[in-house]
Design goal:
With about 140 residues, this protein is an alpha+beta fold. The protein is built from four helices and six strands; from the N terminus they run αβαβββαββα. The chain has a single domain, classed as Glutaredoxin (3-Layer(aba) Sandwich), CATH 3.40.30.10. The strands form two sheets. A four-stranded mixed beta sheet has the order 2-1-5-6, sandwiched between helices. A two-stranded antiparallel sheet has the order 3-4.
C-alpha cells in the first residue's frame, strides 16, 4: 500500500479555520502511542479511506495523541494538556473517533474502542453521514 499520512494535529484553532473555510467537518482520532487498536484502525480503516478518496471533500481527518506531555491549542486558542482536551469530550479510552464541526461541537456519537473490526468501516461511514447531515441542518 502506498504511504499515506494521517496528519497529526496540535492546533485546533488553525484546524477549525481550515474546516470552516473548506466547509468540512473534522474526524479526529484520539490516540496513544502504544495503542495497538489505534494502529489497527489507522491501517485497516483510515488509510484505505484516504487512498480511496472517501469523503475527501467533506471531512478533514486528523489524529491527536493524548499521551503524557502532549499539548494542544484548543478551539479557543488556549494551550492545554492533550489529555485534558480529550477528557473535555469525555474521552478516556483510545481509540476514540470524534466528529466535530469547526467550533469543536460534536456532530455525531463518538466511536469508542473497537467492537467488531469487520463492521467498523460501516459504523465510521454512518457516523460521517450523520455528522454531515447535522452540519447541513445547522447551516440551513
Amino acid at each position: 500500500m502506498p504511504e499515506v499520512k494521517i496528519f497529526r494535529t496540535h492546533d485546533f484553532q488553525a484546524l477549525a479555520n481550515k474546516a470552516r473555510q473548506e466547509r468540512r467537518i473534522i474526524m479526529l482520532l484520539v490516540s496513544q502511542v502504544d495503542c495497538a487498536y489505534c494502529h489497527l484502525i489507522k491501517e485497516e480503516i483510515i488509510r484505505p479511506m484516504i487512498l480511496g478518496g472517501d469523503f475527501k471533500n467533506e471531512i478533514l481527518i486528523r489524529e491527536m495523541f493524548m499521551d503524557e506531555g502532549e499539548t494542544v491549542i484548543d478551539f479557543q486558542g488556549m494551550r492545554r494538556e492533550a489529555a485534558d482536551f480529550a477528557h473535555g469530550y469525555g474521552v478516556f479510552v483510545t481509540p476514540t473517533l470524534l466528529f466535530l464541526d469547526p467550533d469543536g461541537k460534536e456532530l455525531a456519537e463518538q466511536m469508542v474502542g473497537v467492537n467488531t473490526m469487520e463492521m467498523y468501516y460501516y459504523y465510521v461511514d454512518q457516523s460521517i453521514r450523520a455528522a454531515l447531515k447535522k452540519q447541513a441542518g445547522q447551516a440551513a
